Design the sequence.
């Protein structure tokens, strides 16, 4: 995608009939690949709305939490009050302000999700690119390792290791989830690399004496980026769901720290007791984050690969 | 076809053996069976700890321990001692697996059927109101935490049961003890409904998206137009030419997601209080019960490999090119 024309003044004027001056309505300004993708992304209304929702949630969690007049550790004099002006999300039976806790939990969950997405993407992309580029025995060995990691249920291994590293805090949990989710990325990157390495421009680069590492990082990976970005969005949603599931089972984020999963886990019995706000608000935040991330991913997929837009049959 | 099946089966044996070794490493790393014993108050004598270590065979090197465990399992059918009192791992595994298999298989069948139907409808009516509705529902379930949905559904049904005074759909446990014959069966069905719905919906979402994409791919291809141009009816073309080809990617996806479904079953069982594989795993990890966790992960690996094998064989049925290659 980096080798497409980027000059703004390139026009199709030279193919219009030679008689008379160049007609402006037939001249089109060339768009860069990025502009094309961006324009296609804007057509996906839900994806565009989702970007705003996600940015709003991220700002709320990272900035709003600090500005809110209750800290998540503050015990207020109100116990178990339903949502009101002073406590928009109500309070729990100890008097903690649920809004402050949800913001804090969202922040923790997002930190974990972003860490997982970055780590898993970097490891998975490099792993897949090397396997696909060298093929043969290297590919076989590397992809069998991927297959093996995929035979282990992520919740089970996450629970085992999460229990073991409980005292190490949220970063250990993020490492564990990342360590179990990179194989999915590597499979996709490998598939793309297998076909890209046969392209003429890779041949040309090799003829010019480019080293393998240069071919992989400068010529192959930039062309895989579309698929990778889509996978990143899926990973973010998956990481949030995995984190909350592990925290729910008691193997994830531990009190006094809190995450959206930990909050729901604590609110399980609250729903039976009628304190619905403790159960619904953290759940709705998880759904909002995952839904917007998934829509953004869908918009990006359409933008990077418009081949599925129209049906001919 | 038989040669194809046998070849596939032979390939998965080394995969399984290496996979058990990986799982073994994971458990030696993640579970300390002596932790609970050492944490006892008053602390037990060194002799007691040594005796325990001896029973568990953990004073040896990792390859030796693995060899011991593997030979015990495959030549004597022995899963090793549990450190939880009153538990025989093989027996526990049998009863847990039977319960969980019931849930997982039903949920998978339900999810696959729903995914195929909604995926095909969505693809054949791309950009219609139906498509948007199905897509929206799919995305919602894709973003829903399994356990949150389970707790919500459970509470809804509890309220509904109380107001209707009709308790067929049960919200807790896998069955009511002490029933037999027809009443035991209908009781088990009543207990199955909610967990099956929860587990099915958690995988349905991504599969229907997948089915929609692969169906769209097929719908755009030239042979579909050719079949229509030959004069075949639309339904016939869709089912015989379109659907059969579009099912191949879904088969892979379902097999790949087996591990995720087992994970989902752990959560579902936890919410609905089933004494299945989920409970076995959670109590095993909390107790640091090395052999129980190891047995769980080994069985999970067998199931995943088995489903991948079945997917490979289904490929052969769906796509003659693979069978004869």
Sequence:
């Amino acid at each position: 995608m980096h080798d497409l024309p980027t000059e703004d003044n390139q026009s199709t004027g030279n193919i219009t009939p030679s008689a008379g001056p160049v007609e402006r309505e037939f001249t089109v300004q060339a768009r860069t690949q990025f502009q094309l993708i961006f324009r296609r992304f804007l057509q996906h209304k839900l994806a565009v709305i989702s970007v705003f929702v996600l940015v709003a949630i991220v700002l709320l969690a990272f900035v709003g939490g600090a500005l809110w007049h209750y800290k998540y550790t503050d015990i207020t004099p109100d116990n178990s009050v339903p949502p009101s002006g002073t406590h928009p999300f109500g309070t729990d039976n100890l008097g903690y302000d649920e809004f402050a806790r949800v913001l804090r939990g969202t922040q923790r969950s997002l930190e974990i999700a972003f860490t997982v997405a970055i780590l898993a993407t970097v490891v998975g992309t490099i792993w897949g690119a090397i396997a696909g580029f060298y093929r043969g025995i290297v590919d076989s060995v590397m992809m069998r390792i991927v297959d093996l990691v995929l035979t282990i249920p992520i919740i089970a291994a996450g629970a085992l290791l999460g229990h073991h590293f409980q005292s190490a805090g949220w970063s250990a949990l993020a490492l564990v989830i990342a360590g179990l989710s990179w194989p999915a990325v590597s499979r996709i990157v490998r598939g793309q690399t297998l076909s890209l390495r046969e392209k003429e421009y890779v041949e040309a680069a090799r003829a010019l004496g480019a080293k393998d590492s240069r071919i992989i990082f400068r010529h192959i990976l930039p062309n895989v980026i579309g698929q990778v970005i889509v996978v990143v969005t899926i990973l973010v949603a998956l990481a949030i769901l995995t984190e909350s599931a592990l925290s729910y089972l008691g193997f994830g984020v531990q009190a006094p720290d809190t995450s959206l999963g930990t909050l729901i886990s604590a609110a399980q019995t609250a729903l039976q007791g009628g304190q619905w706000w403790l159960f619904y608000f953290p759940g709705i935040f998880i759904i909002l984050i995952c839904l917007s991330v998934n829509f953004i991913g869908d918009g990006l997929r359409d933008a990077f690969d418009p081949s599925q837009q129209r049906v001919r049959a | 076809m038989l040669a194809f099946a046998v070849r596939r089966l032979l390939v998965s044996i080394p995969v399984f053996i290496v996979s058990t070794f990986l799982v073994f490493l994971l458990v030696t790393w993640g579970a300390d069976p002596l932790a609970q014993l050492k944490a006892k108050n008053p602390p037990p004598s060194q002799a007691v700890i040594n005796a325990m270590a001896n029973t568990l065979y953990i004073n040896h090197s990792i390859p030796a321990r693995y060899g011991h465990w593997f030979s015990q399992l495959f030549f004597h059918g022995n899963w090793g001692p549990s450190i939880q009192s009153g538990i025989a791992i093989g027996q526990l595994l049998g009863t847990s697996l039977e319960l969980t298999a019931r849930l997982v298989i039903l949920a998978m069948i339900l999810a696959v059927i729903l995914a195929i139907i909604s995926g095909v409808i969505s693809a054949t009516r791309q950009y219609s109101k139906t498509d948007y509705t199905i897509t929206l529902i799919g995305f919602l379930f894709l973003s829903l935490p399994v356990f949150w949905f389970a707790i919500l559904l459970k509470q809804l049904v509890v309220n509904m049961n109380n107001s209707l005074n009709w308790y067929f759909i049960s919200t807790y446990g896998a069955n009511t003890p002490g029933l037999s014959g027809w009443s035991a069966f209908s009781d088990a069905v009543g207990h199955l409904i909610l967990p099956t719905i929860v587990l099915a919906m958690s995988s349905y979402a991504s599969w229907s998206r997948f089915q929609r994409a692969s169906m769209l791919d097929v719908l755009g291809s030239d042979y579909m137009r050719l079949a229509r141009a030959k004069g075949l009816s639309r339904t016939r073309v869709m089912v015989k030419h379109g659907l059969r080809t579009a099912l191949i990617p879904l088969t892979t996806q379902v097999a790949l997601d087996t591990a995720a479904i087992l994970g989902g079953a752990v959560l579902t069982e936890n919410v609905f209080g089933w004494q299945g594989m989920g409970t076995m795993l959670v109590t095993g990890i909390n107790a640091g019960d090395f052999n129980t966790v190891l047995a769980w992960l080994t069985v999970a690996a067998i199931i995943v490999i088995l489903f991948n094998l079945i997917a490979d064989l289904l490929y052969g049925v769906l796509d003659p090119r693979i069978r004869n290659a």
In short: Residues 94-287 of chain B form a domain with the MetI-like fold fold (CATH 1.10.3720.10). The two ends of chain B are 11 Å apart (CA to CA).
